[in-house]
Recover the amino acids of this structure.
């Protein structure tokens, strides 16, 4: 059996959809399972023993119809028995429809019966200890697995050599191995997913006061100016705990470095999902417009916690649409009461340590 899983979009989405591959390989150990994604997400899939081949679909191919149709027929020649399209946009509709697969699986939309023969309505509001992003992906396994699925956590696989390189990197920056090392996700993947920088600095100050930890920031070179802004907002005492120039420019070294941290604190997004896949504890701050029911993953575990405006002021979501809240993100970020956030963070430190 040959199976293709398609998940374009961001790293968090790509990583979450690996649970499909993990469970298919358990059910069909002899199957060849391929994974199609954007090139910038490939690194979170490397070394996963449940994925046989990674197929990048670049913007250059997507934005040229001749290139896209050439790509589609290359996929058809692979003779997949099943295509599971988690993304379900025009280019992946076409890839699936022309694949020749017996099983063409995706989510239900008004037009999807044209392209797929197995479609499922996404869960919108059910009780879930895992989060709807997980539950909705498990739906797409229904044509293949009838029994209850218990392997629901995405995983990142690192080589020993990558971990050793991360340890050497820490040593080269004279990181005190006796102190906790905490990574801060100071910047979101987009402006509207970034908690105000001055407020983030106050959270870092509080963390240092409560933990005496060494702090490193998650940022890339073109974000250095914003990272420096956060650093400058921090107190002079906190600055002594921050190793500002310790960061990674590539994803695999970043993952290895993250694996050596005590925890990750910061904006909800790809880094939080990667930390969870590495079994690193997380405390995340949600942007007001992201649905918490979908992405508050594995918060049944004490080591994962988050804060969302909907938890603090649910009446706002009765008065405004998600689109309105997104368009006025920074107005609504101002509604987050910092004292309550710090109180919840302190509780998290205590519960996690216990």
């Amino acid at each position: 059996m040959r199976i293709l899983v398609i998940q374009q979009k961001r790293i968090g989405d790509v990583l979450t959809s690996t649970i499909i591959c993990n469970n298919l390989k358990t059910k069909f150990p002899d199957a060849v399972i391929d994974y199609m994604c954007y090139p910038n997400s490939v690194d979170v899939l490397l070394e996963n023993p449940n994925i046989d081949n990674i197929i990048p679909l670049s913007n250059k191919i997507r934005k040229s119809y001749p290139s896209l149709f050439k790509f589609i027929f290359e996929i058809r020649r692979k003779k997949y028995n099943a295509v599971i399209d988690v993304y379900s946009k025009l280019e992946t509709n076409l890839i699936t429809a022309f694949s020749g697969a017996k099983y063409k699986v995706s989510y239900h939309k008004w037009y999807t019966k044209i392209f797929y023969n197995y479609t499922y309505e996404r869960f919108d509001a059910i009780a879930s200890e895992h989060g709807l992003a997980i539950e909705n992906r498990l739906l797409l396994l229904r044509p293949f697995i009838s029994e209850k699925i218990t392997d629901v956590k995405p995983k990142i696989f690192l080589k020993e050599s990558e971990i050793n390189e991360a340890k050497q990197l820490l040593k080269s920056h004279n990181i005190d191995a006796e102190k906790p090392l905490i990574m801060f996700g100071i910047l979101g993947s987009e402006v509207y997913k970034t908690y105000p920088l001055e407020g983030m600095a106050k959270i870092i100050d509080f963390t240092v006061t409560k933990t005496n930890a060494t702090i490193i920031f998650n940022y890339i070179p073109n974000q250095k100016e914003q990272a420096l802004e956060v650093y400058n907002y921090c107190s002079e005492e906190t600055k002594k705990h921050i190793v500002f120039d310790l960061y990674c420019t590539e994803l695999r070294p970043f993952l290895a470095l993250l694996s050596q941290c005590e925890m990750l604190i910061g904006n909800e997004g790809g880094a939080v999902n990667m930390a969870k896949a590495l079994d690193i504890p997380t405390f995340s701050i949600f942007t007001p417009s992201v649905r918490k029911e979908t992405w508050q993953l594995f918060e049944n575990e004490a080591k994962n916690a988050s804060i969302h405006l909907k938890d603090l002021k649910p009446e706002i979501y009765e008065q405004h649409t998600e689109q309105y809240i997104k368009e006025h993100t920074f107005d609504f970020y101002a509604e987050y009461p910092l004292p309550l956030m710090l109180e919840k963070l302190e509780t998290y430190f205590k519960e996690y340590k216990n």
In short: DSSP finds 18 helices and eleven strands in the chain. The two ends are 46 Å apart (CA to CA). The mean pLDDT is 93. Residues 160-353 form a domain with the Rossmann fold fold (CATH 3.40.50.2000).
